[in-house]
Structures are given as structure tokens and as C-alpha cells.
């Protein structure tokens, strides 16, 4: 198959053997896959992430001397069934799934393992039990965004919001927008969004934020202290600044994965009695809720989408994600050259 592979710190198009579905697995052809900022981070900091995973049981189970096919936000179609499958979805059915494969009681991350190629390639092998059929009303590109939307669903569910909570979302990338969408779905009465980018602030308003803040001109807490803060940036120093500005008793949900060593001044949290909750990730129920919400039109992500590209354009498109003026999601279709 053709794939945009990560090798020796760069992305290039290469020919790889087609993956073969094992027991309980289905072979699928990728129709659309979103480019995520975490893919860019893996490209430039892969060795550090692999070392961390080996010591702490993280998901980055890669041999960087061998090709890796990234891509964990996808819509695909069923091509073939492996042994011991129920064959409940016929060939040609459009599907999506949480980006994990379960085999022999072990969980592997699609797009983060050498032997589990992701959506930057023509074919993937996925666990049949996790596949969700994509409804006709949902096109390939929007279906591929089920994964980031499920992240927002998880963090909002985990926050256990109260009816009188005022919420601040810090950062308006894909995860910030996904949190915003989940908050709107829960009918939260007051949602503030903070981002340095004018384009991102306007996008937040278009997606239902009640008010937006430019932190270069105004402190995010200046309009009154939010009771719940979702940190959706994931860069060193951001959590520390959020903690310093938060009100006494605030709850902070750390949705932005900082994949570098970070530091916070913990006496601030002690003095203010802050509740700081780190990640985890979407459960199957969150992925299913996101899938249903997208399919039924409860959540609309069309405004997130930019160009649809082919494999040869993946390398440049990943680097372009550094610019917040660019669209939230570029989608690759590996069927294009």
C-alpha cells in the first residue's frame, strides 16, 4: 500500500506491505484521516515520547528505526474480515472507531505502533468489536473527527459540571472546540473562551461560545472568576499560569496533553484549594456519544475543516499546523496521489 510514513524524523511517501487482519480484526481502506497536532509532536519529539512510554507505560510503542504510519482520526470502509470475526458489517460499509486494537488482551494504539498503521496509509487493520457504522448523513471528513470530538465529550463528562458553573476554555484548537461543543450540548449557561488568535476566537463564537477573550489584552479571569477551567493548550507554562489566575476553589480540567516536561508552583494550588484533574481519555461511551451527536447533527464540525489533501502533501500540511490562522483540521485522503 501507499502511505505517508514517518522515518528518520521526516514524512515521506513510500510503498509498504498491506496489513493483514488478525483474529477479530477487519481490514479497512482509509477514506479520510485528520491531521492532529500530536502527530506533529511525535514527528519532532518521537524519541523522548518512546522513552517515556517505556518507563511509564505510555502509548508511544514505536521502533523509530522502522517506518511508522501516523493518523488516529479516521473514516474508512470495510475491505475484508480476518479469522474469528462475526462479519456483521459488509464489505464497503463506512466505519470509524476509537484508535485502538485489542488482541490477546493487549491494547495497541493505531498510528502509534509500527505494526498498527494509521490513517496516513491506504489500509488499516482494526478491531471488529470497536467499529461503528458511519451514517449516510455524515460525510467522510466529518466522520473522521469523531475521535477529537470524543475527547471533548470525555472531559466535560469527567468535570461533573453543576447547573450554576461558569466555564472557561483556554485554547481553541481541536480539543478546545470539542470541549466547547460538548459544553453547548450540555446547555452550560456561561461559556468563555480564551485564545491569542483572532481567527480562533471568531471560530469559537461561531461554534457557540458566549464570550471570547484575547489574553494579550485582557486577563482571562477579568470578567469574573470561572468555577471550572478547561486547559486545552498543552504547552509548557500554560497550566502554571492557569493555576495562578484561577479563583479559590476552582476546578481545572487538564485536557491539553503537554508532551514535554512541565513545572507548576504547587503552593498556589494548596493556598487556593484548587482541584486539578489530569486526562485519562475517552471511554467507549464517549466515542459512541460523539459518533451519535455528529450523525444526528447535534454537533457540527464543518467550520473546523480546511483542504482535503493527498499523501504527498502530508509533510507540508503537518508543519503548517503551527500557524493558528490555518484551519483546525486538514484531512488526508490516501486514495489521492
Task: Describe the model.
- With 337 residues, the protein is α/β, with parallel strands linked by helices.
- The chain has two domains: 176 residues, Medium-chain alcohol dehydrogenases, catalytic domain (Quinone Oxidoreductase, Chain A, domain 1); 130 residues, Rossmann fold (3-Layer(aba) Sandwich).
- 28% of the residues lie in helices and 24% in strands.
- It contains nine helices and 17 strands.
- Strands 3, 4, 5, 8, 9, 16 and 17 form a seven-stranded mixed β-sheet that branches. A six-stranded parallel β-sheet has the order 12-11-10-13-14-15, with helices on both faces.
- α3 crosses α4 and α3 crosses α8.
- The radius of gyration is 20 Å and the shape is globular.
- The two termini are 12 Å apart.
- The model has no long low-confidence stretch (mean pLDDT 94).
Task: Based on the model shown, name its key terms.
globular; 6-stranded parallel β-sheet; 24% strand; 2 domains; Quinone Oxidoreductase, Chain A, domain 1; alpha/beta; 9 helices; Rossmann fold; 7-stranded mixed β-sheet; 337 residues
> Biggest sheet: strands, sense, closure?
7 strands, mixed
Q: Give the percentage of residues in beta strands.
A: 15-25%
CATH uppermost class of the largest domain: Alpha Beta
Number of helices: 9
Distance between the termini: 12 Å
- Helices and strands, in order, run as EEEHEEEEEEHHEHEHEEHEHEHEHE
User: Could you say which structural class the secondary elements and strand pairing correspond to?
Assistant: alpha/beta
Helix proportion = 25-40%
What's the number of domains?
Answer: 2
CATH superfamily of the largest domain: Medium-chain alcohol dehydrogenases, catalytic domain
Average pLDDT across residues? Answer: 94
Task: Give the overall silhouette.
Answer: globular
Radius of gyration: 20 Å
Q: Unreliable segments (pLDDT under 50, ≥5 consecutive)?
A: none
Could you please say which CATH topology of the largest domain applies here? Quinone Oxidoreductase, Chain A, domain 1
- The assigned CATH architecture of the largest domain is Alpha-Beta Complex
| Extended strand count | 17
Amino acid at each position: 500500500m501507499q502511505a505517508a510514513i514517518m522515518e528518520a524524523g521526516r514524512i515521506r511517501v513510500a510503498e509498504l506491505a498491506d496489513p493483514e487482519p488478525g483474529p477479530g480484526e477487519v481490514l479497512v481502506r482509509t477514506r479520510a484521516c485528520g491531521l492532529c497536532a500530536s502527530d506533529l509532536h511525535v514527528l519532532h519529539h518521537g524519541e523522548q515520547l518512546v522513552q517515556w512510554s517505556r518507563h511509564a507505560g505510555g502509548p508511544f510503542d514505536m521502533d523509530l528505526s522502522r517506518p511508522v504510519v501516523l493518523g488516529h482520526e479516521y473514516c474508512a470502509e470495510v475491505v475484508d474480515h480476518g479469522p474469528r470475526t462475526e462479519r456483521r458489517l459488509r464489505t464497503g460499509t463506512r466505519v470509524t472507531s476509537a484508535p485502538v486494537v485489542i488482541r490477546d488482551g493487549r491494547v495497541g494504539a493505531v498510528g502509534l505502533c509500527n505494526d498498527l498503521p494509521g490513517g496516513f496509509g491506504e489500509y488499516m487493520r482494526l478491531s471488529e468489536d470497536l467499529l461503528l457504522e458511519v451514517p449516510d448523513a455524515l460525510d467522510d471528513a466529518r466522520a473522521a473527527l469523531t475521535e477529537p470530538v470524543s475527547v471533548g465529550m470525555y472531559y466535560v463528562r469527567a468535570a461533573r459540571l453543576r447547573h450554576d458553573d461558569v466555564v472557561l476554555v483556554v485554547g481553541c484548537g481541536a480539543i478546545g472546540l470539542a470541549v466547547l461543543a460538548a459544553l453547548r450540548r450540555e446547555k452550560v449557561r456561561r461559556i468563555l473562551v480564551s485564545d491569542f488568535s483572532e481567527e480562533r476566537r471568531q471560530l469559537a463564537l461561531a461554534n457557540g461560545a458566549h464570550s471570547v477573550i484575547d489574553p494579550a489584552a485582557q486577563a482571562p479571569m477579568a470578567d469574573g472568576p470561572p468555577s471550572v477551567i478547561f486547559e486545552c493548550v498543552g504547552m509548557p507554562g500554560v497550566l502554571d499560569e492557569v493555576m495562578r489566575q484561577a479563583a479559590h476553589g476552582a476546578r481545572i480540567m487538564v485536557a491539553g496533553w503537554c508532551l514535554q516536561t512541565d513545572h507548576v508552583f504547587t503552593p498556589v494550588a494548596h493556598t487556593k484549594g484548587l482541584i486539578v484533574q489530569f486526562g485519562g481519555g475517552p471511554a467507549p461511551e464517549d466515542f459512541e456519544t460523539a459518533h451519535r451527536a455528529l450523525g444526528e447533527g447535534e454537533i457540527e464540525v464543518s467550520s473546523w475543516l480546511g483542504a482535503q489533501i493527498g499523501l504527498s502533501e502530508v509533510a507540508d500540511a503537518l508543519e503548517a499546523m503551527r500557524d493558528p490562522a490555518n484551519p483546525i483540521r486538514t484531512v488526508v485522503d490516501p486514495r489521492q496521489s
